[in-house]
């Protein structure tokens, strides 16, 4: 478009028009304010907004953790945010970012859980997928960067074909829709977006061996660039079946070859736990883990 304008715009009116266009698109590109899409659900006093409400800080101390949730529920779409995790000694802390249908017995849930560690030891990222009340699908990777040194983007893409968990642009987990093979896939229940920071030193770090060191408190995690795009439920009745939703587009239905390579690289080099290969827990290989599925 810019080229077109360069060719045709040589007068002052066009210049002004161009300035307008640029200003408007910059305004639109501004990330949403936290309170636009989210609300605090646990311990107001432990969540601080800054940068005009476009970023927040979560605090964990001996009194409390804290949490927030989206105002709406969504059926398919993509949610992403930038998070900078607790630096230094974060052992025993868990920072979670997840989607949940809030329907106890039949809940659908897509989890990112960042498990803290002692100074210098790697954070683990645990993911889990619940479909119709059945979870127990944990996988863990250790990150290839220090997630407390800077902000990184964590996102969940959810469409009719699959659920993909991304760290920056790297897919770290794919849960395919294999309903045709009798494997449950979350697609009926809308889900809210949640995040919490809390203490879980009975299991989080080295299986609970490493305890939280309250001398290092308070613990802080930072969030910004909140972005949710999806079908709001209740809402338009046709949204979820509209094939022109970008998250249902061809390029989002499968990992492209470059993304598939990155995904293989993560699994070969950074995966530290996979329920699919845990024979003690799963003597029978769960059907969704079978090769080729
Ligand atoms: C913490 O560090 C230990 C030692 O490097 C490692 O085995 C473990 O996977 C790391 N993550 C967690 C959450 O325990």
TrEMBL record:
Stretches assigned to the GH16 domain: 24-223
Localization terms from the record: Secreted, Cell wall; Secreted, Extracellular space, Apoplast
Keyword Ribonucleoprotein: no
GO terms assigned for molecular function: hydrolase activity, hydrolyzing O-glycosyl compounds; xyloglucan:xyloglucosyl transferase activity
Listed GO biological process terms: cell wall biogenesis; cell wall organization; xyloglucan metabolic process
Main location: secreted
Signal sequence, start to end: 1-29
InterPro entries tied to this protein: Beta-glucanase-like, Beta-glucanase/XTH, ConA-like_dom_sf, GH16_AS, XET_C, XTH
EC number from the UniProt entry: 2.4.1.207
Post-translational modification: Contains at least one intrachain disulfide bond essential for its enzymatic activity.
List of glycosylated residues: 117
GO cellular-component term (any): apoplast
Keywords assigned: Apoplast, Cell wall, Cell wall biogenesis/degradation, Disulfide bond, Glycoprotein, Glycosidase, Hydrolase, Secreted, Signal, Transferase
Catalytic residues in the record: 109, 113
Similarity comment text for this entry: Belongs to the glycosyl hydrolase 16 family.
Protein role: Catalyzes xyloglucan endohydrolysis (XEH) and/or endotransglycosylation (XET). Cleaves and religates xyloglucan polymers, an essential constituent of the primary cell wall, and thereby participates in cell wall construction of growing tissues.
Name used for this protein in its record: Xyloglucan endotransglucosylase/hydrolase
